[in-house]
């Protein structure tokens, strides 16, 4: 341990859980965990941030493929947000993939990202009488690419093995699933499209630029619903179903894992639901933004189309998926590259290489359009340089894509400016000074109107898919259903 020049007692803390023996408390426990790893044949260890739940299916499959592979799941010791999911990730590997407990270790640290960055340059991790090569979870994709593209027969056999493992933990009967489908009024003997909603980025998770757009989902639904069953699954706010006319006729599953009979059951039960639907349907395809959920159905050999935009592809951020596409693998995993992100945040955000995240563009008036830039310049002259805060706030609101929020913000800002101008001494001013202030008020009102009009236009025009993207994606989906 000393070879890493790290203080493990301060770096790693207990998860305070007795359910799994591989949640370790201190450096002594960590040494024992490393020794157990070595004794069970582990030679290479992947380091996984507990926020990265999207990686779990590929990591689980890689652990199945390579007996000398282990994983250390790092979470934040002071996480009050619920973003870290070690209590979901570790049981997933142990139960759903039936990995030996000694090959999976969970640790808490003040900052998982910093801990991983501190460990990786050493390229090895030394314990008492043992040493491991280190890698990120990205190595799981390399393993699967090699195993699934080796030869068609072996790939099919391996995928069938994955299916068996992933579904074996389903502690729910077919009859309960049929009752659920009857309650939802699902006609399974049809062509079925499952539209997956993703909102984890908005809740503080990774890859917030990949959150789905309710507008985009409703656009797809309206084009597909006539001769097919469309199921909307995931964390979409049910109120959106009523707000968007395109959802008419779709069946809302939402966060069905919180409903009977799935609540409190294993993740395998969720997979079994759609596997059973597939077995009774004429055809089924899953469609959604790039996510780990779609990985799981691809590994079950369901048809899957995941969506990214050109910026994502240019940065190579979907490499985890692309390694599973093509070759001899019998998986039907396809990528759809949109010209622009269907969610406004993806359009009005910028990728930060330093911490691998997207952030709203702030302080860059050029992205807001020429008329608005002119308005901001005038406002700067009127309010003596107070426009920068407005531009930053404007971009944040624009990225969020909520016109009502933007309206409320500008209204509040307007009231503040008016209050400052129409302060109590105003009534005592000479008439000429009152006129000057009134002119200033009118100028500010006109500028705020320009700002608001531009915001609402951008929101209205750029929500969802562009027409060409929509047409192309619908054609891709219709190949399968």
Q: Care to describe what's here?
A:
Helices cover 47% and strands 16% of the residues. The protein is an alpha/beta fold and 481 residues long. The chain has a six-stranded parallel β-sheet with strand order 8-7-6-9-10-11, sandwiched between helices. Strands 3-2-1-5-4 form a five-stranded mixed β-sheet, sandwiched between helices. Helix 4 links the parallel strand 2 and strand 3. The longest helix has 32 residues, at 431-462.
Number of strands: 13
What is the percent of helical residues?
Answer: 40-55%
The CATH architecture name of the largest domain reads: 3-Layer(aba) Sandwich
CATH level 1 name of the largest domain: Alpha Beta
Q: Which class best fits the helix and strand makeup?
A: alpha/beta
What would the principal axes of the Cα set say about the shape? globular
What is the total number of structural domains?
Answer: 3
Q: Beta-sheet strand percentage?
A: 15-25%
Unreliable spans are 1-21, 362-373, 383-387
In round numbers, the mean pLDDT is 78
What does the main sheet amount to?
6 strands, parallel
Within the largest sheet, what's the order of strands? 8-7-6-9-10-11
Please give a handful of descriptors for the protein shown.
481 residues; disordered N terminus; alpha/beta; single chain; Rossmann fold; 3 domains; 13 strands
Write the topology of this structure:
Layout: H1 8-11, H2 27-39, E1 44-49, H3 56-65, E2 69-76, H4 86-96, E3 104-109, H5 112-119, E4 124-127, E5 130-136, H6 139-148, H7 152-168, H8 174-183, E6 191-197, H9 214-224, E7 229-234, H10 238-243, E8 251-254, H11 267-280, E9 283-289, H12 292-299, E10 303-309, H13 310-315, H14 319-322, E11 332-338, H15 344-347, E12 349-352, E13 357-360, H16 370-383, H17 387-400, H18 403-421, H19 431-462, H20 467-478
